[in-house]
């Protein structure tokens, strides 16, 4: 998470700032005091340009820009994968709509044939719906996200490259200016020290100190010039930095607000697209329920009997003909005994008419399993009931 994590843990900073004062933290180091207070001070500003100053402000904002760009790329990839899933699902549904099951419709009576034919139709329509949904994900979500990314990166990239170069320049100047300051300070201290020693020594020792003093005076002329030039350059660079950083903060805030608005709208479109398909499919499922309701088991059975029945005549077995004794009767002229079938049906289905449509436990068990959530370690191809069994 890096320094950007500190931005996300601002509440922790504020909580620690309210901790009681002890002897250990009562007198913080002077050089750390201001930074310590600023780090834990609540920021009431609503603008990036008033909230991200200092080294950590730069790193936090650059990191936020990077993470936001990555998030958009991942969202685009997610839409792409979702579109592929819908396309694959549509292909499988289309194949399923041509299943061998529906090649047998001609052998069914009207009621059941109508129900199965409706099943075939809604499977084909569902395939079409999901194919169109896949296209919508690609054209209206993935493509628009890609377009938004390109537009955003076109604005962000050049500005960020410029601000990073300026930040590097300012950082390097600060290091050089601090080194020059330390050298200048060291020469000034040396000259002061040697000057004091000149009043305390005589003879050859004074000559040695005099040589060192002259050398320090020659050095300080150079270090003072370097320090002055670098300080002036740093002042100019810092002034330019403040102007450009303020402008960069404004741009990043605009891009961030645009990103949030775009993602909100995109997710809304995703939900609407998926909801539309669900509603259309629910209408098709209702058509299937209506078709199934019109199916009458008794009528289907009677219709099959009327269309394919072979009669009620129950013939006796052929009589015995004794050909050894010279009998030569023609079978077609020998009358066969015939009775009319009038059996009483023996069925385990007695008392079960009319049947109840559907199995309530299927819906209740499914609802319960969905609400319970996935089981850890369970395969997505196995439902809860299968695992429990």
From TrEMBL:
It is found in: Cytoplasm, Cytoskeleton. InterPro entries: AH/BAR_dom_sf, F_BAR_dom, FCH_dom. GO terms for molecular function: phospholipid binding. GO terms for cellular component: cytoplasmic side of plasma membrane; mitotic actomyosin contractile ring, proximal layer. The keyword Amino-acid biosynthesis does not apply. Keywords: Coiled coil, Cytoplasm, Cytoskeleton, Phosphoprotein. It comes from the Eukaryota. The lineage of its organism: Eukaryota, Fungi, Dikarya, Basidiomycota, Pucciniomycotina. This is F-BAR domain-containing protein. Residues 46-300 form the F-BAR domain.
């Amino acid at each position: 998470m890096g320094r950007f994590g500190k931005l996300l843990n601002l509440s922790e900073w504020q909580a620690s700032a309210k901790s009681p004062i002890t002897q250990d933290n009562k007198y913080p180091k002077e050089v750390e005091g201001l930074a310590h207070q600023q780090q834990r001070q609540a920021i009431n500003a609503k603008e990036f340009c008033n909230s991200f100053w200092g080294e950590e402000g730069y790193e936090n904002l650059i990191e936020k820009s990077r993470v936001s760009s990555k998030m958009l790329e991942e969202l685009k990839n997610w839409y792409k994968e979702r579109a592929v899933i819908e396309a694959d699902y549509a292909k499988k549904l289309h194949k399923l709509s041509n299943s061998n099951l529906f090649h047998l419709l001609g052998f069914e009576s009207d009621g059941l044939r109508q129900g199965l034919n409706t099943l075939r139709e809604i499977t084909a329509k569902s395939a079409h719906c999901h194919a169109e949904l896949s296209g919508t994900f690609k054209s209206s979500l993935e493509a628009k996200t890609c377009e938004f990314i390109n537009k955003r990166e076109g604005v962000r990239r050049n500005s960020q490259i410029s601000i990073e170069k300026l930040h590097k320049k300012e950082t390097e100047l600060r290091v050089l200016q601090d080194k020059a300051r330390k050298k200048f300070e060291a020469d000034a201290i040396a000259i002061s020290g040697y000057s004091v020693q000149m009043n305390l020594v005589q003879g050859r020792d004074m000559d040695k100190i005099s040589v060192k003093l002259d050398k320090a005076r020659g050095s300080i002329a150079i270090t003072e010039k370097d320090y002055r030039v670098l300080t002036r350059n740093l002042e100019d660079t810092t002034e330019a930095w403040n102007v450009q950083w303020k402008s960069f903060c404004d741009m990043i805030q605009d891009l961030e607000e645009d990103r949030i608005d775009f993602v909100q709208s995109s997710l809304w479109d995703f939900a609407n697209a998926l909801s539309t398909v669900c509603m259309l499919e629910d209408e098709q499922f209702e058509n299937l329920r209506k078709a199934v309701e019109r199916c009458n088991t008794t009528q289907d059975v009677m219709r099959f009997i009327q269309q394919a029945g072979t009669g009620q005549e129950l013939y006796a077995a052929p009589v015995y003909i004794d050909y050894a004794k010279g009998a030569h009767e023609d079978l077609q002229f020998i009358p066969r005994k015939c009775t009319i079938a009038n059996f009483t049906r023996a069925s385990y289905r007695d008392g079960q008419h009319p049947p109840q449509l559907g199995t309530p436990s299927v819906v209740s068990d499914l609802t319960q399993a969905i609400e319970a959530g996935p089981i850890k370690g369970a395969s997505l191809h196995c439902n809860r009931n299968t695992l429990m069994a």
